[in-house]
Fold:
Amino acid sequence: MTLDVFEAQEKSIDEAENEFCENVKKFTSDTKVKMRTSSREDAMKVFDFAFVFLTQAIPDLSNLEYASEFRNEETATLRKDFEKFENNMKSLSQKLEEAQLSIKSLSEKLEDAQQNLSEKVSKVVGNASFFQEKVEKNLDELNEAKRSNTLKILGLRMMQKVLYDRTKLFEDKAETTTSSSQASASVAATSYVSTQRLSQRSTTFSVRALGDAEVPNINDMKLLPGCLIVLADSKNKYVKLYDRQGRQIHNRAFKSSPVCLTIMDITCPTTWEVGVTQPLEREISILTVTQNSVQLKASIKTERQYWAIAAVTTKTLAVSDLYGAGVDLIDLSGMLLYKLSTTFNPWHLVTSPDECLVMSHYPDDSLAKMKLEDNTTIFHHKVPQ
Structure:
């Protein structure tokens, strides 16, 4: 070796020696301070640790041979540790690769499962949609059938009334033609006098209004203060308002046929409330009537299809079912308050001042009166044929 190399190595040894000595001095100095500031027991522990470290942990470096042996031992130890570390790393790499393969396999299985699940969900959704469409179609057909049946019942009721009126007229004519000539002359004279008297005190007017598509069928009518007449035209789906001279004042159109009317409130001198049933819509409309118009105030949705109607109070209504016998008492929200037990299926209802309900039934020409308080029948009268 050259002189420069030796000098550099010696310098490195000197620097390492100085650094080592400084570290040992600092360690011993800190140990002494620690011993002085600690308790006796802690000071003994610090002393034992420092003494063992200085006498046993630091090898004997008094000769170069020992230093070489120490270095060889340290190098062998480090080499073994490094080989052990490499083996551990290889083992970890293998385990990591196996874990990655497992994760990949699980991911593929998960994707397959998700795809199968998506296909099953799509199939279920498709079946559900098909079933829903089928149910909706069946419901539409059922509702249409119910509506058709209701229309048929309405038509039958109206036809029944027309046939009844025509039958009575035919019977009256037949009875007139079979009587004697003297009786006929007497009847004719009496009829003429009666007609003359009637023409003096009554007015006949047409209820055919502008906008009517059909011949009017007046199912019910009510007389309001001021000689206003409210009519329910079920054929043209109108509630019509006329004055006493037969002049049409206003028409109120409805989606379905209005059937029966009731006067609910006439306490106000210029405004009155009238209720009207609409069986097809399962609805009762509350109308505000003035001298000039008919306006919708409120609509009451009902569970059943009601035909006849009568106001018991300003907040309670008596209504009859379109299909079967019985009378219900409901409030203005449509809630059932009480059910009257009766075999009647009324076509018209009216309340009397003595808190009773009067019911009329066309087919058998009968009239009944029931007490609302205890649901008792006061009388049941049938008109003789």
